[in-house]
Amino acid sequence: MTNRIILSGILWVTALVAAAQVSYLDRVAVETKAVRKVDDKVTVDLLWQFNGLKVNTQNQAEFIPVLVAADGTAETELPHVFVEGRVRRWVNERRELSKDWSPRNGEVVRRHKGKYMPLNYHAEIPWEAWMHGANIEVRERVTGCANCLNGYAATVIAPSVLPYRTPDASAFRFASLVTPAEEELKMRSITFRGRFQFRLDKYDIDPAYKDNYKKLEEARAKIDEVASNPDLNIVSIEVAGYTSPEATVAYNERLARNRSTSLVNYMKKRFPQVPSQKWFASWPNEDWDELREAVEKDTLLPGREQILDVISKYPDNLDLREQKLKELRPATIYETLYRKHYPYLRHNDYIIRFAVRPFTVEEARVQLLKQPERLSAAEIYRVAMSYPENSPERIQALQTAVRLYPSDDIALQNLAVAYLQAGDPLEVLSLLDGRAHTASLQNIVGVALIHAKRYEEAGLWFEKAAAAGASEARTNLQLLNEWISHTR
Asked: How many beta carbons lie within 10 A of that of residue 421, not counting itself?
């Protein structure tokens, strides 16, 4: 593919005479027809006109086009243009017949009926990276009969040719917005902790004991919030019982089972509107995970590192683990642990599982603001599409989808596409950092890097996406490589 960078126009030269007794440059017109980069070379096309030019009969005006770097650090001469006076032309013709004559680098302007004819000038030189934004100067050297220098001048005829062109970011393709799959049944759940108090080694329900009434009312309010909502249908309510580990595992398991079962039976009576078969008890038993987390956070706990070491060493024998904790010295290590952290391990968790009815777009708009977790990815997408492209409302809806479904590749892709459409590649890169696991997302990262003018990184991502099967990435990689080959 040919990359063409063209600058056309006419500059009638106004000579900036550096040091000259004689100069003809201000009587020469040069039209810059085209300056192109073609593969690994640069072509220059100029039209020289010499209307009314009269050159002293003994003189030769040598015009030297020069491509000069924008910062002046490099330059390359192009073939010269020679305009000769009548006698000087006759002398040079005789010299050209001599075996010692060396051909000149350039073209001699012809005369016809005493007038210098226009010259269509074409030159080719090897491409170098510094030529981006270069200037074309014409320098003049006037010599007399003995080749002595009679004058010198220079002028710029074409500023800033071969401008550095960045790739057209809009030419790089990426995936479209995708409609997420529908959830056949929108199952959701909420979990909350209760600390219903039991007397030592007992499992009977006593609402009047300590602050049990308050705890039961808190649980009742949360369950009632779900049970009374017409949009929700309770599927199950689980009460999970946990214990602290000071007794044996077998004893604690019986205690956890009996306590959670008693609590379920009590709650069934409080909520007759929830069918009894939807209630069930579980007993995960000793809550070592909770204990480990509490000890890790308690940086001032005596013997903290020793306690964590014991918890890590005996994963398959919990009774031995508990015994080793009791054996830690000084004895105040276990005493403090028991007093400070064990009471919080005796708890019951409520897990309410429920189905959510489908919502219309209008209803889903309201839910998106109040309880977006009750919407499916497809419902959120429909809300997003109900707003104009690039609108804040569409972006916010798609952001919510990613927040609720952070591992959903379609949600990630839709938000990334929306960011690109809104012209925000940095948001794309932030969003997909460490999350571009599909070929489509990897290609989107590449396109975002193109928009951010990070071309080498973009190429690496296009290669990765193409290897993973993204046809758009293969096309983008070819487009990028063509630009690189014609630019560098």
From this structure: 14
Q: What residue has token string 């459409």?
A: 421
Q: Which two tokens stand for residue 287?
A: 């809550």
This prediction has a pTM of 0.69
Residue 285 near residue 249 (C-beta atoms within 8 A):
yes
Question: 212-227 vs 249-270: helix axis angle to the nearest 10?
Answer: 60
The pLDDT confidence band at residue 9, using thresholds 50, 70 and 90, is very low
Q: Residue 137: which residues within 8 A CB-CB, separation 6 or more? A: 65, 66, 68, 154, 155, 156, 157
Decide if pLDDT at 344 tops 60. Answer: yes
- Work out whether strand 29-38 and strand 186-194 pair parallel, antiparallel, or are unpaired: unpaired
Largest Cα separation within the chain, whole Å, is 129
Q: What is the CA radius of gyration of the chain?
A: 42
Instruction: Give the mean pLDDT of 255-281.
Output: 94
174, 444 contact by CB (below 8 A) = yes
Q: How many Å separate Cα 170 from the centre of its chain?
A: 16
Angle subtended by helix axes 409-421 and 377-385, to nearest 10: 20
Position 486 confidence tier, pLDDT thresholds 50, 70, 90: low
**Distance in angstroms (rounded) separating the CA atoms of residues 246 and 56:** 117
Spatial contact of 17 and 141, defined as CB atoms under 8 Å apart: no
Tokens 């296009």 identify what position?
Answer: 462
User: Which amino acid, 237?
Assistant: I
Residue 288 contacts residue 221 (beta carbons within 8 Å) = no
Query: How many degrees, rounded to 5, is the angle at CA 427 between CA 422 and CA 433?
Result: 140
Asked if 382 and 216 touch (Cβ cutoff 8 Å), the reply is no
